[in-house]
């Protein structure tokens, strides 16, 4: 039989014991003493407790990072390179809204087929804030891609935005293909992976690339020329 009364316990025999689950906290002007159960008391300087309480929230705030395009502070901000006839708001200099016109929001030429006889058999026409100055601060742009048979767009990334690609017309392995890409930035930028890996300056050590791609060193040397 086992009986439990208060904090004392007995386990069917002469053996008995006492269990104390009471937590004790003593304070003075400079220290905080804590005692849990039958453990030895632990004393902490009060300054340590205060520092911990202040530093931890600051560490959480330091982890918050934001990165984004300039926010639109007005309906539109037509980009202009001449600061004498414009007002700087954010992003690029803004043309006086009274001087904005339809051509600031217009681009022509996407309907013209581009040359696809080059090495990668594709041509990309970007349409961002450099081509349509009215896109400044609007966080959107597009690209037009013409693909020839077996054409491709080399692997790449856009450091300032994400991309969605829509194929408008396709004739697999037979004729040209047209696609439009929508991007979530007025100037998404582009980084071609092959150029970064094999054409970097200074070059990446060939021993590293040989092991990474599991090819012979002479192949890496050829690609880095």
Task: Assign a percent range to the helix content.
Answer: 10-25%
Q: In this structure, how is the largest beta sheet organized?
A: 4 strands, antiparallel
Work out the strand percent: 25-35%
CATH architecture of the largest domain: Sandwich
User: Total strand count, please?
Assistant: 15
Task: Supply the number of helical segments.
Answer: 4
CATH topology (fold) name of the largest domain: Jelly Rolls
Oligomer: single chain
Pairing-aware structural class of the strands and helices? Answer: alpha+beta
Spatial strand arrangement across the major sheet:
10-11-14-13
Global shape: globular
Query: Mean pLDDT, rounded to whole units?
Result: 76
Structure explained in plain terms:
With about 220 residues, the chain is α+β, with helices and mostly antiparallel strands. The chain has three domains: about 60 residues, no CATH class; about 110 residues, Jelly Rolls, CATH 2.60.120.10; about 35 residues, no CATH class. It is built from four helices and 15 strands. The strands form five sheets. It has a four-stranded antiparallel sheet with strand order 10-11-14-13, with no helix packed on it. The chain has a three-stranded antiparallel sheet with strand order 1-2-3, with no helix packed on it. A three-stranded antiparallel sheet has the order 4-5-6. Helix 3 crosses helix 4. The longest helix has 17 residues. This is Germin-like protein subfamily 1 member 13. It is found in: Secreted, Extracellular space, Apoplast. InterPro entries: Cupin_1, Germin, Germin_Mn-BS, RmlC-like_jellyroll, RmlC_Cupin_sf. Pfam families: Cupin_1 (PF00190).
